[in-house]
Amino acid sequence: MGPECAALVCAGAVAVAWVAGGGRGREVRRARELLGTRGGVPWAVRTWRLVRGRWRERWEWWVPAVGAVFAVLGASVVPLVIGVAGMPLAARARQGREERRVRERRADAVISLCAVLAGEVRAGRQPGEALIAAVREEREARTGGGGSGAGGGAVVAAARFGGDVPGALREAAREPGAEGLSGLAACWRVAVDRGAGLAAGLERLADALRAERDQRADLRAQLAGSRSTAVMLAGLPVLGLLLGSVLGARPLRVLLHTGAGFGCLLVGGVLEGAGLWWALRIVRGAEER
């Protein structure tokens, strides 16, 4: 019996013991200890998940890592220096994406607050009590989802103690993504001063904010192709360098160890960065408009 057959027999025996013992036998527990498992998940898998999560949160560290790889392949420190210099730009891009997610979650919270507040008012509650209950409910929902809520302690305090609720709402509307609270402040002032229907105004406001959000999402989906194309075209030179290295042309040696090659690398890098910045700027301008 060869080693392959022996390995198959051992694997089959372990599988039979697992099924027969329901995963609770002494042999299975011993196997878990030997494999370094805890709760059915090996320690190596847990470590990999932790590292992967950290790298996803701080993915700008991939930039110097890639630079280090090219530094080893090209036997030069220049790619590593470029990677370290590009790390702040990657960190800024990551922070911009995180800020956009926070704005989107806060805009969703404003829509949810308007809808819940309209329901509370229609249920017969007074506007102040309805606002307190709506803010509390929306905050609990957002706490469970890890998002950023709308409003704040100032709004709740103003509603509870008879303060300037529209002023507190307008102050909270200054946060990115919470601009819809200014519409809520206008509805509140009109309803309190003139006796207009607060629930109807809130429902119309929620519908308008929801339509605006859907329009932004549709526009972003349409522009996703342009953004992806720009990024893909920016990565083609790197792919060309890798293909040249595989074919034995040694382009990294020419770019990093000759004067003409280093000049081409410098000029090409500047033009590449300028083109990518310009293309993404056009896309961002379209999104903002």
TrEMBL record:
Q: Which organism is it from?
A: Streptomyces antnestii
State the UniProt keywords alphabetically.
Cell membrane, Membrane, Transmembrane, Transmembrane helix
Single GO cellular component annotation?
plasma membrane
Q: Where are the transmembrane segments?
A: 61-91, 230-249, 255-280
Domain spans labelled Type II secretion system protein GspF: 114-242
Identify one Pfam family in the record. T2SSF
Q: Localized where?
A: Cell membrane
Bilayer topology reads: Multi-pass membrane protein
**What broad class describes the main subcellular location of this protein?**
membrane
Protein name, UniProt field: Type II secretion system protein GspF domain-containing protein
